[in-house]
Design goal:
The chain is of the alpha/beta class. It contains five helices and three strands. It has a three-stranded parallel β-sheet, sandwiched between helices.
């Protein structure tokens, strides 16, 4: 079995490349989006860690972005809450696809500051 990780900046073509091979793709960005929309446990944890920014469920990505731009330490708090959940989803994906010839991981880790 071959595992391929595709990393890159926003809009760099990660999804296009990952989907071009015809193998199953684990898309971490999509999993995070699902957590924000459907997982109340994540909401309560983020609300407790960042009550002035994460105020409603489902979580709006704009609130997350605003919290990160306000204070870089907020990113660490978010990662500490989100990454274990995404890792769990990834492990489920791996188990489900372990007999496949190959599969891909698609990640976006780069967060950019926007000039005001």
């Amino acid at each position: 079995m071959i595992r391929i990780g595709i990393l890159g900046d926003i809009g760099s073509g990660k999804s296009f490349v990952a989907n071009s091979f015809g193998y199953p793709v684990f898309n971490a960005d999509n999993e995070v989006g699902k957590l924000y929309k459907k997982n109340r446990k994540i909401f309560f944890k983020l609300n407790k860690a960042l009550p002035e920014y994460i105020t409603q469920f489902p979580i709006k990505k704009q609130e997350v972005t605003k919290s990160i731009l306000a204070n870089k330490n907020n990113l660490r708090k978010i990662i500490k809450i989100i990454h274990p959940e995404v890792r769990t989803k990834m492990n489920i994906f791996i188990k489900k696809n372990k007999k496949k010839k190959a599969y891909h991981f698609r990640y976006s880790f780069i967060i950019r500051e926007q000039n005001k």
